[in-house]
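Protein PARTING DANCERS structure dump, as promised
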Amino acid sequence: MVGFALQDFIFNCGGSSVAFIFMTSLDSGTISQFFGRVQKLKLQFANLYVVITLPTKEQNDLFVRSYFKFGMELGKPTFVLVKDLEMGFEKITKIAHSRGVCKREDATTKLKAERKQTVQTPGIFQKVITAIPGIDNHDANALNQAIGSIDGIAKASREHIMENTDLSADKAQMLSRFFRDPKFYLSPKIN
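structure tokens r here:
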């Protein structure tokens, strides 16, 4: 297998394991094996990063086509694209160090608590919910009173939304689809 250079690294940073797959040379003959390895390690590590050197436009195009062909989900795992080996090692070191610092200072718990508090602020809740196509202020208020949180709305079924609010079947379907269908919520919305 010419040009196939794949390395796995696992760092223990502040009590948290951070795994990296470092692909130093990508070509069409090794792409399926590479994405197979990514899928396997994705199931084993919560903190997985895939660092790939893509010095040419052709390699970048191959990666982009293959990313969707092999059914990768955005952000799961995080892919870090770099131009050369040195930059790849630098990114691995910085990510591992920052994950360790976050773990040591318990920054992720603080950020989650801050995010939860911010999202529960009534004005923010209104802005987030009314940003969904077809949902107005009245609908957002009804959802806030009946379900209470964005997380709750995301988990609620169409039927649950209709039973507990005065929203129409179309709006309940829109909400349900918005939170569950990545093709829908990642597509552009024109108001």
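The domain at 5-105 is CATH 3.30.750 (Transcription Regulator spoIIAA).
lmk if u need the other ones
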